[in-house]
Amino acid sequence: xxxxxxxxxxxxxxxxxxxxxxxxxxxxxxxxxxxxxxxxxxxxxxxxxxxxxxxxxxxxxxxxxxxxxxxxxxxxxxxxxxxxxxxxxxxxxxxxxxxxxxxxxxxxxxxxxxxxxxxxxxxxxxxxxxxxxxxxxxxxxxxxxxxxxxxxxxxxxxxxxxxxxxxxxxxxxxxxxxxxxxxxxxxxxxxxxxxxxxxxxxxxxxxxxxxxxxxxxxxxxxxxxxxxxxxxxxxxxxxxxxxxxxxxxxxx
Length: 252
Known about the structure:
The chain is α+β, with helices and mostly antiparallel strands. It contains 5 helices and 11 strands; from the N terminus they run ααααββββαβββββββ.
């Protein structure tokens, strides 16, 4: 894995026929506001945990909302008539019962509530080959090892099936880090964990690091001009970098 770690989001390829059918039914029968974030999140989550979505890109709630919005604009009279009679419709699809034969359709137990709303999350995983973090295109399957810990098989964005890896859910999978905006540089502090873009002659990839020192400088038309001394976690080497090479955890 000596290529640049892609940062772009995987392009959504569309809903399956089954998913479209369920949304068409909700369009006609549901009395809820179809465009609310909460409703669309429930629909997206139900798709993401279904057996038919295993091995496919995760559906975001905004994609569900866009679909409903488009259908409402194209056929408003049909939507209006759907609110005349109250209906008790569940947005959760029927899913296959968890069995040993269908492990890939189950959610990793160790992920707990952190994975409860997959429709809004994008992930990165740490490769066991070089210790660097790469964006996840999709989760292919999961299993439990002898220690009882869960592992997932991931495919990285920009890489083929030959680079798929089994990684530990707790230690090597997390929500994707985000670039730091120039206006937010003042929030970075010594000791903070960051994901740093390491540029070397033979590779350019992302590693975890901690901020050791910050040289605050006046911003100009180019943005932040501060310098950050960081120490990489994997080999304890240090390097001075600018803000554009740093990402932080989503909770930053």
